[in-house]
Amino acid sequence: MILVTKTWEETTYDEDGDPLIDDGGFEFEDEPFEFRHLVDELRMHPMPSSWPLEGSTFEWVSTEPEMDRYGVWRQTSVHYAQKNPTRNAKYWRWAFIHAGLIKEAQA
């Protein structure tokens, strides 16, 4: 099991493209995931926090922002929970590889 945190962010823009409302929070914190479930979750979040991804515990992945019918843009992000034991860091990297976010040549 690896502990995962999922955050969300919502943004509304005015006519000039400037953000009006920016809100966010946690969908869940320190949720235990089995490896296969983590890989599936990472595949649904294809936007990396940095490029190229290395699979470091400070890196996260996000969904592409989607606009709802009210004009609010929503995005979710998956993060490595800092409450994980140190030995779990390697599983975070392996999950990135299995999700196709890191090419094996980079690994």
Q: Can you walk me through this structure?
A:
The chain is an alpha+beta fold and 107 residues long. It has one domain (2-98). Helices cover 18% and strands 38% of the residues. Strands 1, 2, 3, 4, 5 and 6 form a 6-stranded antiparallel β-sheet that branches. Helix 1 (35-43) crosses helix 2 (89-98). The protein is elongated. The mean pLDDT is 91.
Can you describe this structure in just a few lines?
By secondary structure, this protein is of the alpha+beta class. 18% of the residues lie in helices and 38% in strands.
Please write out the topology:
Blueprint: E1 2-13, E2 19-33, H1 35-43, E3 47-48, E4 61-62, E5 66-67, E6 73-80, H2 89-98
Antiparallel strand pairs: 1-2, 1-6, 3-4, 4-6, 5-6
Helix pairs in contact: 1-2
- Radius of gyration, in Å, reads 15 Å
The secondary-structure class comes to: alpha+beta
Percent in strands: 35-45%
Number of strands: 6
What's the average pLDDT?
Answer: 91
Order of helices and strands: EEHEEEEH
| Major sheet details | 6 strands, antiparallel
The CA-CA distance between the termini, in Å, is: 22 Å
List the defining traits of the structure above.
six-stranded antiparallel beta sheet; 107 residues; alpha+beta
